[in-house]
Amino acid sequence: MIVRLNTWFSDIVFTSTFPDLELVSDQGWEQLELWAEEQLIFSVYLYVNENGRIYWTNLGQVMEQYMIENQLSFASFSLRDLTVVGAENRFRRDFVAVFSSYFMDGYAESFIEGNFLTTLSAKQISTSAYDMVPFISKKGEDITDRHHVVFYADGVLEAMDWANAKTEEKDIALHNIYVSAKDYVSEIQGSYPGKEIKLLSFSVSVGPRNITYYVTDRKNLTQMFFINAFNAFELFEVQGVTTTKTKVERDTAVVNRREVFYDRTIEKSYEVQTSALSSPIKDWVEQFLFSPLVKMFDPDADSIDEMAEILITESTCEISNSNTELSKVKFIWKYADVYPRIDSIKRKTEGSFSQQFEFQFK
Description:
The protein is mainly beta. The protein contains four helices and 22 strands. It has helices spanning 59-69, 108-114, 181-191, 279-289, and strands at 2-5, 12-14, 21-25, 29-36, 39-47, 53-56, 74-81, 92-98, 122-126, 130-138, 145-153, 156-164, 172-180, 197-206, 209-216, 222-227, 233-238, 240-255, 258-274, 294-296, 309-318, 328-335. The strands form five sheets. It has a seven-stranded antiparallel beta sheet with strand order 17-16-20-21-22-19-18. A five-stranded mixed beta sheet has the order 2-8-7-4-5, with helices on one face. Strands 9-15-14-11-12 form a five-stranded mixed beta sheet, with helices on one face. A hairpin with a 2-residue loop joins strand 18 and strand 19 (258-274). It starts with a strand and ends in a 27-residue tail after the last strand. The mean pLDDT is 88.
């Protein structure tokens, strides 16, 4: 049976930094298992070397695959020895793994206590979009969410604060704070009735965790949700120029000495060239380009799950440390659905010169 575990790791650990394990056994082989909650997800037979040691590697990748399939940002796992029949003598090591597709410095426990599940402390959001602010909390923690907004009320600069008091009751839990400019404006109008509100920014904090959103009125943004480095959905609104490309391929055959079409495929793709990116944003955009799942933002969808999936087929990052050269990203995306899409058809006839020209396609 397993006598001891020689490798130390914390009770809360990042998947990307989960170590290779060295275990000591008093017999020739061991049957070892990895469980998620009460579900067996991995089992292996390992032979013991001449020094009585067993080495168990790459468990971080196994845990990541399980969390991707189940859309989890963290999960409770346990390592178990199934060789010994007597339950009281069996080896078992319980821990919590936090998903991270990037190598993270420091301990996972201190990270989740002080940060939302994003690598940004500030980002931009349009008036038409919403975002999710995820965080992990532990039992007994004060998870009061505090909100600070800055706005103009009839042209006068104002600020407001409010909070929703809560205490974590579960051992460990994931929370998502829904934020949107429209909801904040509605909250403000309750205290400033009859005044014209222009929202400039809002900040959300839970304990030491904090993120600030700067509100923009820009139109023609390409809006997407993607799975970030912590396996959580995050909004990305692209400023830049989009070029739509349609490729039509036709196959022909000769029938009765006449050449006819018998098959055709239509592929519609979109090439996006972003505007200049700041240093924190360009590193964050890499998570978007490498994301296993990207959804096209749809304000009419009831949830992110209902939004259309898209594929990032090509990408080029131009990252410069020059003071004069700005970083830019170019990528090509298309809908995962093989059928080409068209915008809703307007039945009202308009003149050619009365229609607004849109330089960015959706």
